[in-house]
Amino acid sequence: TAGTVMPSAHSDSEDEANLSQVTCLARRLTDQLLAFRGCCADCHRQRKSQHEEDMGQHSSLQAYLSSTAGLCPDILGSTQMPSAADELAAKTDATSRRQIFCGLGEEETPPHICLDEDERVSEDAGVTFDIDSITGLLTSIAVAKQGIRWLPTQMPISDLRSDLHLSPIEVHFSGSRGEARRSRRPIHQVPHYTFGRLIGFEDIS
């Protein structure tokens, strides 16, 4: 009938092909994130067991700092500025300095500071992923078929703070004498205008 447009089979096949490519890309990205620098629980247990065998003494950092208290004057804890009459250098002997700066006390080997003794990791902790941003380039205005929510007022603060890991883009401008010039600048250094947001894709900026 007049006024009726029948969808072509060619466009449907293209949509299915594009959808399958997006699905394949999403699955590959998910698999990569799950396996990114990952290691099994057995690897952690084996490494911890080997660590306990290699190091006989496990001292926390807080316990070691408590054991060295009083070896030298507490300057930061004093309410007065020291003077030459205090003779602070004479209040710390060679043995105390050796333990403070080298960690060598009565034993000839420095103590092993094990940070795991200070903070225990919760068994409920899991693996999370943080993706800074995803940038896409549109190839068709059909992405705005539901409409555009126009922002007539320019944002006072730019929402671009970095180059988004993109290569510098070519810009054209006028020099101090009015001559035409061009250069390459990072995207966050190029003045831009936030036109609006796509209806149906409000999370995309």
What can you see in these coordinates?
By secondary structure, the protein is α+β, with helices and mostly antiparallel strands. Among the domains are: 44-75 and 88-117, no CATH class; 148-198, no CATH class. It contains 4 helices and 4 strands. Strands 1-4 form a two-stranded antiparallel ribbon. Strands 2-3 form a two-stranded antiparallel ribbon. A hairpin with a 5-residue loop joins strand 2 and strand 3 (180-185). The longest helix has 26 residues, at 9-34. It starts with 8 loop residues before the first helix and ends in a 7-residue tail after the last strand. Residues 1-5 have low confidence and may be disordered.
Structural descriptors:
alpha+beta; two-stranded antiparallel ribbon; disordered N terminus; 4 strands; 205 residues; 4 helices; two-stranded antiparallel sheet
Q: SSE order in H/E notation? A: HHHHEEEE
Q: Structural class, judged by helices and strands?
A: alpha+beta
Q: Identify the strand order in the major beta sheet.
A: 1-4
β-strand percent reads 5-15%
Number of helices: 4
What would a concise description of this structure say?
With 205 residues, the chain is an alpha+beta fold. 27% of the residues lie in helices and 9% in strands. Mean pLDDT is 77; it is low at 1-5.
Summarize the topology.
Layout: H1 9-34, H2 41-54, H3 61-67, H4 94-102, E1 148-150, E2 169-174, E3 180-185, E4 196-198
Antiparallel strand pairs: 1-4, 2-3
